[in-house]
């Protein structure tokens, strides 16, 4: 609308078209003699308003109050009857959907008004309005990207953005077992209480800091072990004189090719303390059995080992790619200068590999913070830890979040943890992008 | 001098081969063990020899005939979900990537940053909301729900494909534009054929998704005959691992073998895909 005001050219007819479209969609388009377009717009406004006019006040009321009467049983005469009250959680979701539709409405509104204005300006300047077919062709040629993005954007909006907004909202409510589970009870807004509980309140904060510490240690060790393991294997294969390079590479890719879930479940059985083959071999060689999964320390070692087994191939493939791009003459020059193998590795290979894989390293670190599968499938967070609330010794923040949500129905605290994880991962990633700047300079490679 | 060097090189190579051999052993051992377990008679995880004395295929037969495991049904379910998801997700990812890589429009940077930010939330943080949404849509316990959610999430993985499209020279399509080709023609006749390795890679990783996801699948699919393999396999380990370990072994072999073979056959694309994704971050 601003642009209509600023336009210096006296185009009162264009403004008239814009105002007409603002009052009723399509009216301005009729005025511009674009009848098909106008009819479609008119129909869509009627449909959207029929939904929005009753839904909007209900949505605002629902989101503000989260309902005022819980579902309960009332005695009518001699019979108890269930009276359906307000379901706070459905109120949030329905409210969110209504607001999304409302935003869509605003967006179409602005577009329609602009369109009416623009087309009229063209007509007044002696141009010809597009007929419907021409309009479609125009969209196909000039709005191709928008056309391509429309469907994926809708999917992401409803199945990713809306749920995330919903969970962010939950973090500020008391939606949790016991006492605040609809339909029997109502849920209320509680502000930052969940966050302050997590960060300062006795048992919650103890669990949070304990799990957070292990999550960070895990992420560092898991990333480093896979990274250097991968580099080692790649260097071994790529050495001068090693035969059957392709065969070795194929063998070492196998752990990546086996579905992770299957590998983890197999490993869980292999490391079984009583019957697993690993302990069988240990006792065969006269060594004692190790509590691979039942002792807090050894359980951590086990998940790290298994994660290395699964994670090395990815780094190996990446590093093999980098190694082939290092110019041979660098090494030849080093040979002339009489450099030893170790010196060549320190001064040429390692810097080149580090330089091209550093961004991946940070992203793998961020990924490991959220590495759900390995912990959940290997130990399920066990062994139990008496000091923790609903978490075990090997639980990461994500697996704790999962347990709180699906097993214990402490949705509000879980949502708060989710937001804290997001903050950690996001700050890491932003720092990473700042450093590598590949994001800003993406157009340079063409 | 020459001799010394040669000797050194022989020692180095021998050590390397030993190391490579050891690593290969740790790679092969778990696979070998599960394979052997799956043909071992009885149900126990314990065995005093790696290679069973009286190998049997009864567990494989049982998987498909026993009332308790509807393995065949789960296999078909998973295949159905995986194929539908791959097709839909592929279309969505490729079109998104193409639009974001090749067009400069208002809000493009915003879209890119939004995708980045969304990827930083823990994946199943939204699972409760999705559950309620599916409940409202009356889609719980249906495969359509899984296909919908998997495909709708796919465009978030767009960076890999976009990075690949970015490396295709602009001059290629500019030449076609001059010859009067429309965007659609350029997309289908130039971009798609050139990006076959990347598309194969994305298709493969998407296809594997439904085979291994049990979090969402377990929550959405309530009745046993609707389960996917991942849910069934997880159930075998979580609920009756001691009584049916060898069945689990046979079950995992049947999941792992086709997918592993698929990966190994398409290894070239895999390597290209991984490396392309890496160079662009």
TrEMBL record, chain B:
Gene3D superfamilies from the UniProt entry: MetI-like
InterPro entries found in the cross-reference section: BP-dep_ABC_trans_perm, MetI-like, MetI-like_sf
GO cellular component: plasma membrane
ABC transmembrane type-1 domain residues: 75-266
Main subcellular localisation: membrane
TM stretches of this protein: 12-36, 79-100, 112-133, 145-165, 199-221, 241-266
Location within or outside the cell: Cell membrane
Membrane protein topology class: Multi-pass membrane protein
GO biological process, one term: maltodextrin transmembrane transport
Domain of life: Bacteria
Keywords in alphabetical order: Cell membrane, Membrane, Sugar transport, Transmembrane, Transmembrane helix, Transport
Statement: the UniProt record of this protein carries the keyword Transmembrane: yes
UniProt GO MF annotations: ABC-type maltose transporter activity
Family that this chain belongs to: Belongs to the binding-protein-dependent transport system permease family.
Name assigned to this protein: Sugar ABC transporter permease
